[in-house]
Amino acid sequence: MSQPLKRRIGLGLLTAYGIGVMVGAGIYVLVGAVAAQAGVLAPFSFLLAGLIAAPTALSYAGFSTRLPEAAGEGAYVGQGFNSQSLAIIVGLAVVLAGTISAGAVLRGGAGYFSAATGVNAQIVILGMGLALILVAILGVLESFALVAVFTVIELVGLGLVIWAGFSAEASADWATAAPLLDTLSAPGLNSGLNSGLNTGLMAGVAFGAVLAFFAFIGFEDIVNMAEEVHEPTRILPRAIIISLAVTSVIYALVCWATVRAVPLDVLAQSESPLALVWQKSQGGNAHFLSSIAVFAALNGVLAQIVMASRVLYGLGARSAGLAVFRQAHPRFGTPVRATVLIGSAVLVAAFLLPVAQLAELTSATLLSVFVMVNLALILQKRRQPEALFQVPMAVPVLGLVLALAALSTALGGML
Question: Could you report the per-residue pLDDT of 45-88, keeping only the tens digit for each?
């Protein structure tokens, strides 16, 4: 007989987990790429990306009250398509994507730490990985508390970047764009847009939003914690919506501060755009941002180990071949077998796999899952419209269209 997980997580920690998963190390490099496309309007790209992610996030929220299970996406797709085999395939795809993502982030974080301390990167990978596996085994409350601490550290760092960006002297690009920004905030918005913006600029904002969309991947991990959350049908939708909204605002403010302080041509070429903001405002080398990037990496790895092990635990109830992972430790209340397997696979990925290419494949896999979840909710709503958290049919339909568009863009970039 399988043992249940312990319900120890409330809204605060679950929301911190969601924010921590999304506000990862990617924001430290993504701003420059988005600014290269959208210029000083890059903050609008991040807000638009949040709106693009919102329908799929709401689809997840809608499904989370129908099936509050650790298997998450696998359970949703299995229910929507009435296929246990498809549930297992989607669930394992999520596990694989989370494992590869964690391996890539672990290698990156170890690289930052190694560069700062001189310790061999291979030793750092092993030490960090084993420590995070141990935390994940000891308890979900302990894991989430550590995630919350790491998230606070990340947000403090980003808050300092925002402060520095608005304290610095505005760049020439920002000063030149001031009339355009005034037009955007003017009462006659539609006429202002027609006269003040050209088609190329708006296309840049839209393409920048597609790039920025990948910074929002992570909200979906929240649903896989369903069996360890108090009152999951009430808390899960709220945590998804709050974390997405908070992250959207944070990203927009960071991007706004960055494009205000740093010339666009410099920003577009930089691999560390946020460090440029600090240097422009305060001088120095901004090494503390590298330290925060290490915490961001640790946060991402721990969150993915916790998430993927819960999916594997959930799949154990749906497949005899995976039933061995449907075990929770009697004292710690965590799926130890699943956690050890996922943690070990993360270490292997960090040591051996060609991370850059697999990171693209991970994004495409997750977007494919988004397509399947939206389509599954459409099918499920046709059969059973009622739910504790009700979303209109237009939500999964729009989520399906936007996820397909993002997936085609991602696949186009890989080919």
Answer: 889 888 889 999 999 999 999 999 888 899 999 999 999 999 99
Distance from C-alpha of 334 to C-alpha of 136, rounded to nearest angstrom = 8
pLDDT digits (tens, 9 = 90+) for 94-113: 999 889 888 888 887 888 78
Average pLDDT, the chain: 85
- Nearest Cα to 147, choosing from 333, 26, 246, 21? 21
Annotate 193-223 with DSSP letters as a single string: HHHH--HHHHHHHHHHHHHHHGGGTTGGGGG
H-type helices in 1-83, by residue range?
11-22, 27-38, 42-66, 73-81
pTM of the model: 0.86
Q: Which helix (H) or strand (E) holds 371?
A: helix 355-383
Q: How far apart are CA 132 and CA 230, in angstroms?
A: 24
Task: State how far the Cα of 204 lies from the Cα of 43, in Å rounded to an integer.
Answer: 12
CB atoms within 10 A of CB 122: 13
Cα Rg of the chain (Å, integer): 21
Sign of CA dihedral 68, 74, 77, 82: negative
| Burial (CB count <10 Å: 0-12, 13-18, 19+), residue 209 | buried
Helix 27-38 × helix 42-66 angle, to 10°: 120
Cα 106 to Cα 100: distance, rounded to the nearest angstrom? 10
Cα gap 63→376, rounded to integer Å: 9
First vs last C-alpha separation in the chain: 47
Domain boundaries, the chain: 11-414
Cβ 53 vs Cβ 216: under 8 Å: yes
Q: Which CATH superfamily is domain 11-414 in?
A: Amino acid/polyamine transporter I (1.20.1740.10)
Residue 183, pLDDT above cutoff 60 = no
Averaged pLDDT for residues 217-228: 90
Q: In sequence order, which residues have a C-beta less than 8 Å from that of residue 178 and are 6 or more positions away?
A: none
φ/ψ (deg, to 5) at 179: -60, -35
Tell me the C-alpha distance between 44 and 205, whole Å: 7
Instruction: Judge whether 223 and 23 are in contact, CB under 8 Å.
Output: no
User: What's the pLDDT score for residue 76?
Assistant: 95
Which residues fall within 8 angstroms of residue 291, CB to CB, at 6 or more apart?
112, 116
Residue 312 pLDDT exceeds 90: yes
